[in-house]
Amino acid sequence: MSESTLLDGKALSEKMRVSMQERIERLVQAGNERPVLATILVGSDPASATYVRMKGRACEAVGMLSERIELPGQTTTEQLLKVIDTLNANPQVRGILLQHPVPEQIDERLAFDRIDATRDVDGVTTLGFGKISFADQAYPSCTPAGIMRLLAEYDIALSGLKAVVIGRSPILGKPMAMLLLNANCTVTICHSRTVDLAREVSEADLVVAACGKPRLLRGEWLKPGVIVVDAGYNPGNVGDADFESCAQKAAYITPVPGGVGPMTITMLLEHTVQSAERHAGLMSD
Hints:
Number of strands: 9
Number of helices: 10
Largest sheet: 6 strands, parallel
Shape: globular
CATH architecture of the largest domain: 3-Layer(aba) Sandwich
CATH superfamily of the largest domain: NAD(P)-binding Rossmann-like Domain
Distance between the termini: 43 Å
Strand content: 15-25%
Oligomer: single chain
Mean pLDDT: 96
Structural class: alpha/beta
Helix content: 40-55%
């Protein structure tokens, strides 16, 4: 078959961020406050601190404000909830992100669910997942949302496709499956207990690899013309799909890096801008 088309998340991300800059300036010129994305980091995990800094720089690049809140590692659930309540009450804060993971003494699910739904731009609340499952207005988890936006950018028609999602995490695999179901795909979710992964994948028109296992998805499992979305990122710039073998079968495929990865933070920004636009009455639900 002909060479695979690369789904370029880096290029799309850059295009979207230019548009966001313009939208934010329109908000400000209309008399609205510049939107704030608040990030909460509990403890001193180096990787988490790096992610938070990256998100702060991304905010500044599009003209959004970033409020970074750092809490000590011994913070209690009750103390964290009070911080979230304060942010929920601030009208300028249009997005709240609690960096995962939190220290073990904190009830992470309780903390996530304390985030106001209109500010849950990271798509982590139980309410948000429920709304997404019912095709109601909410902000999906950013990586699945980025994948859907990337597929739309390439005019890939999803209705009627058989989709296989490998992975069932609450912020990736499960919401990905719901978004594809809402797009009229027939969806199968595979996971560590799936009996014959190769057989399930062999029937798919679209495969989303989101399991955190380097090069798990193999090209010999795929049928020609399949769409391969690799949502994994492992040491050595390796995804969850074996790119070389999968690209031989795929009509479309995401590279790692440069495919799904750039879209995740971009969708976090996009959701925050949308939240600000809704708050200002410039976007209908």
